[in-house]
Design goal:
Distance between the termini: 48 Å
Structural class: mainly alpha
Length: 67
């Protein structure tokens, strides 16, 4: 995030979370949709926050085979 406070420090993870929560809870329906689009746009292309799924969990979530 490019946002900085008065001392030039970046926002903490908690501050980012709190601001996103405020955007989603304080806005009307159109505002929430817009905030969600921007959040998804800003998250696009960023590395995943966790390691890839294990093969066992991938099998659980993959489409069911046709019978």
């Amino acid at each position: 995030m490019a946002a900085r406070d008065d001392a030039g420090e970046p926002m903490s993870d908690r501050e980012v979370r709190d601001n996103v929560t405020t955007m989603f809870t304080a806005a009307n329906a159109a505002g929430r949709a817009s905030a969600m689009v921007w959040a998804l746009h800003l998250l696009d292309g960023k590395p995943p926050p966790r390691a890839p799924c294990s093969p066992a969990s991938t099998r659980c979530w993959s489409p069911c085979p046709r019978r």
